[in-house]
Queue: 3 jobs
Job 1
Amino acid sequence: MDLSAAPAPIVALAGAGRSFGAVRALAGVDLSIAPGECLGLVGHNGAGKSTLVNLVTGALAPSEGSVRHAAGDPRASGVRWVAQELSLAPNLTVAENLILTQRDLRGLGWRNPARARIRAALDRVFPDHGLDADATVADLTLAQRQMAEIAMAFAEGGPDPRLVILDEPTSSLDASRAGQLLEHVRRFRDGGGAIVFISHILGEVFAVATRIVVMRDGRIVDDRPAGGFTRSGLVEAMGHVVRGGDRTERRNDKGPEVVATAEGLRAHAGEVVGLAGLAGHGQAEALARLFLARTSAWRGRGPVPVAFVAGDRARDGVLPLWSIARNLSLAGLSLLTRAGLVDRGAEGALARDWRGRIGIRTDDVDRPILSLSGGNQQKVLFARALATEAPIVLMDDPMRGVDVGTKAEVYDMIRAEAARGRTFLWYSTEAEEMTLCDRAYVFRNGRIAAELAGAEITEERLLAASFEMGEVPG
C-alpha cells in the first residue's frame, strides 16, 4: 500500500484533552478522520463522546493537546454536526433555519436558494419525505425535526459538507426512515465524504462504519476496522456486560383492566403494552390523551395516577435550571412532603438511590441537570417515573440516547415492575423493543391497524401491519 497516496485527514487530534474544573472529561486522545471513511464512535453514556465531538466541531477548545482541521477551522473544513439534542429554532421555518448555518445565504434573494438547497437535501436523504421547506419547525413532529436537521447537515453550500457528525441520528426515526438515512451515509462515504456515526444501536454502527472507535472514561480504549469487531466483542470493549431478561417471558394472564380509550387501546394490570408503527402515526398523541385523561382531575394529593417518560426530553422532560435531584424527584413530591414542605434530605436520598440503581453518571446529584450527557438526562427521566407509586407508566420513545447496557437493565426493571402489577404503555420507534412487550398495537394514520400478542409480536409482523393496514402474514 502506498501510504504517500493516503488522503490528508479532515481533522486530527493529538493528545487532546478537556477538563471542566476538577472533572477530566477527555484525556490524551489521538484520532484522525480521513475522507471516505465512516467512523463508528461508541461508548456508554458519559464515556466522553460528546466532549470529543465538541472538540472536533470547535464548540470547545482543548485544555491540552491539539485539534487541527484541514482548512484551518471547522467551518472552512466542511465540518457539520447533528447533535443528539436537536437545535433548530422553533419559531423559524425549515428554510430559515438553514441560513443560521450557511453564511453564504445573504441578501434580499436568499429565500429561494435556501428552499432549493433544503428540498434537494431532503430528497436525497429521505425520498418521499413530505416536508415543506416553509413549515415552521414548532409545528413539526420530533421525527420531522430530526429529518430536517439531518438534511441541513448534508445540504450543499456554505461550504459543502466534508465531515458530518451524526449523534444518535435515528433516535426518533422509524425503521423505514432510518434505513433511508443509513443508505445515504453509505453513499456519502463512498463518494469521498467522512462521517462520525454515534449510536447505541450497534446494528446501525456495523451497517455503515468502516472503522470503530470505542471510548471509556474519557479515553479511546479500542480503534480498529469495523470488521475486526463482533457485537459481543464490541460490548465487551465498551466495558459493560449486558444483562437482559428472557424475551419470551411474557404475561399470559391478564389482571383487571386499568386503561381504556375510545380508540380501542386497552391495557391490563401488569401488562407491558407496545404502541408500534411508523413514526408520526398517532402513537404519541394517544399517550398524551391517556395522560391528560388520567391527570386532569388530580390535585396533588397522594400518589400520581400516571407517570410519563418523555422522549423529547428538551421540550417535554428536563427542567434545565434545576438540579439532577430536583428533576428526578419532581413527579413524586407528594411522597416527599412533610407539613407542606419538601423534605430535602429525603429528596437527596431518593436521587442518590436511583443514581446507583439506574447508573446515572455523576458524583453529585445537586449538580445542574445539564451537566449530564443526553443519555444520562434520559436516565433521570426514567428514574423520575419509576420512583413514583403511579400504577400506570406511559413511555414516549424513552430509550433515545441510552446505551445498550442501560437499556437491558431498564428492560429488566420494567419487567420486574410489571410483575408487581404496574402497567406500562410503551411507544418506541425500534421494532426490536416492541418484541419485548406482552401486547402491541400497530398504528397507521392515527388509528390502530393491528393488535398482536405474545409470540405474534415479531419485527416482520410489526412492519407488515405498519404498511398493510393490519394484514399481517399468517
Note: The chain has two domains: 8-238, 257-468.
Job 2
Amino acid sequence: MTLLVISPDYASHLLPLVTLATAWRDAGERVVVATGPATAPIVRAAGFEWTDLPLGRGSNPRVIRAEQQPPGEDEALRGFFAATRRGLVETLLYQARARRADLLWDPVGRAYAVREAVARVRPDHVIVDHLAFSARLALSADKVPHADVVLGHPSALPVGGEVYGFPTDWPAAFTPAPAELAELHKACRDVRSAFTAEWNVALRSLSRTAPLVSDALAEHGHRLLFNYPEALHDRARTTLLPPHVFLGSAVRTETVPDDIRAWLDADDRPVVYVSFGSFLSARGDVLATVLTALRSLDVRVAVATGSARDLPEPGRDWLVRDFLPQTALLARAALAVTHGGNNSVTEALTFGVPMLVLPFSTDQFAGAAAIERGGAGLALDPNAASASDVIDAVRDILAGTAPEVAGQLGVQLRTTPGAVSARRALC
C-alpha cells in the first residue's frame, strides 16, 4: 500500500500532514510526499520519499522572511504585513484581493504536474492540503479519490450561506464597523465569482466531462478531514458540514536538545511559551508588547522570535531563539501566547495548555473566538492591546478555569491521535 501526501512548500502546512502520514509508516506502508524543494528536508527527516511538486510562488522551510522570497512574492508579503497593522477588515480585504494568485497559482500547469506525480507514485490513498487548490483541481478532474485535510479552523471550508474569506466569528476585543464588514463581504463575493470562473476554465481544459462548480472555494475531496477539536466547533455549524471526521490534532514528536531540556528542568516556576508562528513573527511590535508585559510577572518565558527584530531585552533566565521545538515547550508550559494559527492552537490544546490569542488574519479570528467562548483562554486585539492588557489577561487566564478546561480537552485529544483517526477514515 502507498500513501501520497500533497502539500504546499510551507513547513506550517507540511508538518501536520507528515504527522498524519506516520500512521501509514508505522503500519509498514510506503509514504511519498509531493511538495516543493524548500521543505524536502522535513520529508526526508521523517523517513519518507520526496517527489518535487511546487504548488505556489513562495516557500517557507521554517521562518518566512520577505527578502528570501522570489520577486513579486516578497512585495506581497510586505503588503500583507502592512495590512495586519490596519486591523481585521483591512487584512482580510488584502488577503481576499490576493486570493487567486495565492490559492490558484498556475492552475493548469500545476494540475499537469500533479497528474505526473500521481502517475509516478501510483498511490492507493491520497491526502491533500485543502488549500492546495491546484492539486485538488487535478484530482477532481481525473476523479482520483482523495482525503481533503482542512488544516485551519473548520470555517476555512464555507458551508450554508458563508462566503470564503469573510470571518464566521471573531473575539469580543474586535469591533469592526458595519460599513467595513459590508465592503469586505462584497469583496469576498466578487473574489468567489472570479475564482470559481477561473477554476471552471481550468477544469474544462483538463476534462471535458467533469461537472462545473458554482463555488470552487466550497469544493472538497471525497473524504473530508478537519485537523481541529470537535469540542471547540459550534454544534449548529457542525450540522451543516458535509460528511467528515474531526481529527482533533496532528502533533509531531520533536527531539529536545540538551540545553533546552536543562532550561526546562532548572526551575519550577510556570513556563509561558510565546510564538507568533512562521509568518506573523514579523509583527515584532506586538511581540515586544507581550515580552514587556511578561517581564513584570513571576514566570519563565520561552520565546520563538522568528523574523522579529529590535525586541526588548529579555529576562535574565528566559529562553530566546528564532526557532524552538514548539511541541516540546508546550508539553511543559502553563500558558501559550499565540497568533492563533492552527498548529499552535491544536498543539497547545493537545498538551492541555490554555492560550492568550492575538489573532492577525484569516481563520485566526474564528479560532480565537472559539477558544475564548470555549473557556480555554482569552483573546486580545494585537493592534490595540497594551502591556497592561496583556498582564491582566495572563493573570486572569492562570487564575481562572482556563487551565482546567484546556487540560480536559488535552485528555480527549491525546486519547486518539489525529494520525490514527486519519488512517481509520481512509482504510
Note: The radius of gyration is 21 Å.
Job 3
Amino acid sequence: MASAPAASGEAGVVHLAERMPQLGGADMIASLVPPPQFADATFESYRADPAFPSQQSAKETLMRFAGIGAEPVKGGFFRRAKKGPEAKPGVYLDGGFGVGKTHLLAAIYHAMPVRRKYFGSFIEYTALVGALGYQKTVELFRGAELLCIDEFELDDPGDTMVMTRLLGELVASGSRLAATSNTPPNALGEGRFAAQDFLREIHAMAESFDTIRIDGNDYRHRALDGHAAVLGDSVYETAIADASARGLASDDAFADLIAHLARVHPSRYIRLLDGLDLIGLRAVAPLDDQSAALRFVAFVDRAYDAQIPIRATGTSLDLVFGEEMLAGGYRKKYLRAISRLVALTLD
C-alpha cells in the first residue's frame, strides 16, 4: 500500500517511489503561492548588481507596475505631460539563470494589494489544465487580479494553444500578468516545434506583455563548483542517517524515482516532497529518454522551490542530461535544472 506524505516535523526515512499524493482542484489552486525561499521576497531585499544597471532599472519598473513609487515625469515645468503609450496588462522579465527574476516576480506578488492572486511555474499552470481540464481551470482563475508565471516556456503546440487561450480569456476579464523566462516572448517556441505554424498565437500572447530585460551572472555559480556533488556509498549512508535523525529524509534508487515520476501527475510532484528535509538518490545514471528527462526537470524545479538539499551517489547529477538533449529544443530547460542541481547538492 502506498504511503501518504508525512506530516511536517516527522523524522525517519521514506521512499518517494511509494508515495502517491492526491490533490483536488481547490488544493492545487491554494498551492499557487511563492516557494518558501521567496515567501518574504520584497523589492527592498532584492540586491541589484551595480555591474548590471538593467537590474536596478527592472526593479524600478516593476515597482511601478505593482503600484509602488511615482511614475516618471513626462513633460517639463508648466507643460502638460504627454500621454504615454497605454500600459499593457502584463510584464515579462527576460534574462538568464540566477539573475533574480523569480525574486522580483515574488516581490510583485507580495506588493500588489489584491485579494485574488496566484504564483506558479509555467509547468504548474499547464499541469493544472491537464489535471482539471481547460474549462474548469478557466472557471477557477476567472476574477483573479494577478497571475505570476515563473519560467514561461512553450514546449509543444498543445501548451502554446492552451496558454494563449487561458491568458487571453483572463486578460479580457481584467487579470494582470507577470512572467519570467529565458526567452523573449516573440521567440517562444523556437527550436522546439514548427514555431511558424503558431506564430500568430505566439505574437498575440506577446502583445499582452511589456518586456523587461535583466542582465547578469548566475548567482548560484558565483561561489559554487561547476559540478554537482557525488558521495561515496558510506558517506551517503551517513548523510541519510544524520538527516533522518533530525527530520525526514527520502532514500530511493534513481531509476525507481524516474519510473515513479511517470505514474504521478506533474501537478502533484510538490506533494511528493511534503515534509522532507533531505532527498537521497542512489546510483544516479544518465537519462536516455526525453520524456523521463523532462519529468525529472519538473521534479527538480519543485525540489528547488522547496529548497530541499539533495545527496546522491553514482553519476554527477549535472551529467544526467546527455549531449543530444542539451543540443535540442529543451536546452534552456535542462541547463536551468543543472544549475539548480548543482546548488542543491552543494548546499
Note: Confidence is low (pLDDT under 50) at residues 1-8, 76-81, 192-198.
